[in-house]
Structure prediction request, 1115 residues.
Amino acid sequence: MSSLSRELVFLILQFLDEEKFRETVHKLEQESGFFFNMRHFEDLVTNGEWDEVEKYLSGFTKVDDNRYSMKIFFEIRKQKYLEALDKHDRAKAVEILVKDLKVFAAFNEDLFKEITQLLTLENFRENEQLSKYGDTKSARSIMLAELKKLIEANPLFRDKLQFPTLKNSRLRTLINQSLNWQHQLCKNPRSNPDIKTLFVDHTCGQPNGARAPSPVTNSLIGAIPKAGAFPPLTAHAPFQPTAATLPTPLAGWMANPTPVPHPSASAGPIGLAPQSNAGTLKRPRTPPTNSSAIDYQTADSEHVLKRSRPFGISDEVTNLPINILPVTYSAQSHGQSSYSSDDLPRNVIMTLNQGSPVKSMDFHPLQQILLLVGTNMGDVMVWEVGSRTRIALRNFKVWDLGACSKALQASLANDYTASVNRVMWSPDGTLFGVAYSRHMVHLYAYSGGDDIRNHLEIEAHVGSVNDLAFSYPNKQLCVVTCGEDRVIKVWDAVTGTKQHTFEGHDAPVYSICPHHKESIQFIFSTATDGKIKAWLYDNMGSRVDYDAPGHSSTMMAYSADGTRLFSCGTNKEGESYLVEWNESEGAVKRTFHGLGKRSGGVVQFDTTKNRFLAAGDEFMVKFWDMDSVNMLTSTDADGGLPASPCIRFNKEGILLAVSTSDNNVKILANADGIRLLRTVENRSFDPSRVSSAAVVKPAMLGAFPPATATVGNNDALADVKPRIADESGDKSRIWKLAEINEPTQCRSLKLPDSLTPTRVSRLIYTNTGLAILALASNAVHKLWKWQKNERNMTGKATTSMVPQLWQPPSGILMTNDISDTNPEDAVPCFALSKNDSYVMSASGGKISLFNMMTFKTMTTFMPPPPAATFLAFHPQDNNIIAIGMEDSTIQIYNVRVDEVKTKLKGHQKRITGLAFSNVLNVLVSSGADSQLCVWSTDGWEKQASKVLQMPTGRGAAPLADTRVQFHLDQIHLLVVHETQIAIYEAPKLECLKQWVTREASGPITHATYSCDGQSIYVSFEDGSVGVLMASTLRFRCRINAAAYIPPNPSLRVYPLVIAAHPSEPNQFALGLTDGSVFVLEPLESEGKWGISPPLENGAGPSNASGPTGSDQPQR
Prediction:
């Protein structure tokens, strides 16, 4: 097969994949043998589809091709054989042995005999070489890793593992180019060609017999550009030599052959250049003999078409604005299907006070937690969101009044105030610009931290500067501005020199959107009269004159990858429009539904992840999928938003800033955003860097009700079966507690362990979510790490991949000092540093500080007695740790200087829990005395204390642990006791809710918040796990022990500790009494643990203090 034919196969593969003909794609891969799809192969192996595995491989190699191929087939057939043995299906195993494995006897007879002997064993793991064979899932995963290495080393697969780099929809593009060329060869080319088939060459009908274009064409046919929409750039004169062609977005918007008053243009003729450039024709072509009016350029001729073509056809065959086959956007490829509405940042994490109404915001392009804010009082602030710190504040002030125009000086003499209209970071984050309502633009240089310096002051416009943006024409950083004076201007961002002035709007210019396609730089501008214009960086005037939907004041924005154009605006009647544009036609492609008809202001919007749109409207934030016109979801961000809030995503789309009606900014986050903030929120920060104290009002995630409950109501503590209520008034939809009783009802993974199994005393995920750390009762730490690969692109903990029980090359273990104590009798404890580099740990002896990379002991300190029983790092300083002691004291210890700063006394028994709040600046402690204490971290004085209310007739064990954990809002406190789960509000320790366990289930062994603060995972001594709603303490799901623990009548096994993944809200890990560690996730089809019960069910979310406030399952 020729190389071109081979390439055609790749184009067909790409087309079939884009059209989602999955089975056909893989069949063609196999039959052609050109591309081995490793991901498809992995799926087949993981699912155990052995016949399909061998059939797919047969397109690339045979058993006896070479030693690599032989090994590949042997491993596959051996795994199939072992799985049959594991299922005790001897007949199937014999069949595999005879039909599949016997072929290898000729090469290694001893091995075949050994394999045959496995039939005689009750459990093939009795064979020493197979003693470490785990379950089927893990065995397939291990084998798959080996197969991939063999395939990559096999010379027969060389150059077949990498798919060629192609632009999207390459085959469609080639067909479009062919049709464009056919259209150029038409005797009587029509301005609006009606392409109905690909089966024969295209020709236009005779002029006198021409039919009107059919409004509906074949499903393959794309929309045809509308003639007459926009003025072109050239008159009906011979075209000038082409210096550059306009990109698709402009060319398609300029299809009207009406001349404009610019007789010559250095930019040459305008045409439609698709994103994949085709070269100009280098050889003369012979057109039809009766088409004498057409003169094609030769290789050394400067002449181009002598006759003016409709649409402004240039000499490039791709420049015709005919888009017969719609080219798929990259954002619409099948790879994007992994996004869901759960990826949207909708959880309110914090509130930042700005002092005056917010007008504009922008996140730093590189430092994801830096937020730039401008207000209507002229204040500009930079916030480090992770630490809730305002690191810079600039008020409106003219730097050099003497250099200003007389008009501005006179205006400022009467009223020295201005509002910020726009703030924006430069693409590299080293500058930010501020556009004010009074003539001025300020550029500031930013060098990190709070190092912000005045860079440029520009009197840019007469009146208000309405918008500002950065661009890179001619690889030079520029600032583009627009204003009330109806003008757009371009300034050198280094010197402040004016580069261009664009005039042509008949009303104040409302917004600008610079962009580029390949080497072509251009600017879209919109005015308050609803007009849209487009400009190149030259003096030729506007290239586009078009009406925005509803003649609205509109903002335009591209998706992050620059392939899709959107606009959002509101007209004078309050009607708002959010649309996507078809750039090849200059027409609206789709209009999104859901915006209000009477907006209170101009609706602002933003895009993220090349997939989602968001708009602030009707006192909420509304979200859309870019490919669906119907609103996806919305959030009111816990209330308090204005009618049209200002919104802004950070670059990764994991944080969303939203302005409020009380002069605040709320920060919303998804799971990744929560993890990001957790990673940075507790790092050390120098207060001297803060320009002024910022008032931070933390958000209240989970909507906890007012604390009006009377804890201790004996009636409320009685066992109450949940009442079933209608959901949303639909009696056919009755809520039911999700019960998970079988392994098939959830995803679980037992982590591999080659070390001595002893009960798991402490368990935690690393802050990155890439590993799990356990501390066993024998004082040994175990660390499991997940590998980053094609099946686990993030490298995060997951049940779909088996992690590695990791040890450094030295083979040493992290083992705590146990002195003369019995570690089984000790109270183990550990704490992980925020950067996952160090772990502080103790098991009844000295406290040890370990390096997590090398497992080496960095230092030991504080020999007992008393022994440490709980450890916590200070949120602002990793060198300060709070150490709870066996003797009931809490020692505040400075590791760096090896000094106890202070000793806190207030408990009667050993300390069992410590939690810092960096919002309230307090430390909350809990003890085996069932008491809670609040300590100020400023002076370490005790602020409050409270004893837990015990259920009637339910006395606690003499040394029962009481654990504490702050909610994301850093105000609400989860309190865990063997008899109950309770929510308190710090610092006064008011009990908001209490849930009491039934005695039948046994005591609570541990509990923790999910990473998003929406759920609480609770483990019980009967082996079950409950998932409670954090806001109401009501059950949404119960996972019984049989769902994840293999049955063992002779051994009672249950979880002692539970840990929540730091960025996956529905994943948690359990440490069991037998030393095993399990990771659990809901089924992919479910997505989460059960469904939230309706408010009408049971006592609802009011203020009950017992099971009446929950859905207590029958245990």
Observations:
- The first helix runs from residue 3 to 18.
- Confidence is low (pLDDT under 50) at residues 208-245, 254-338, 684-733, 1096-1115.
- The two ends are 68 Å apart (CA to CA).
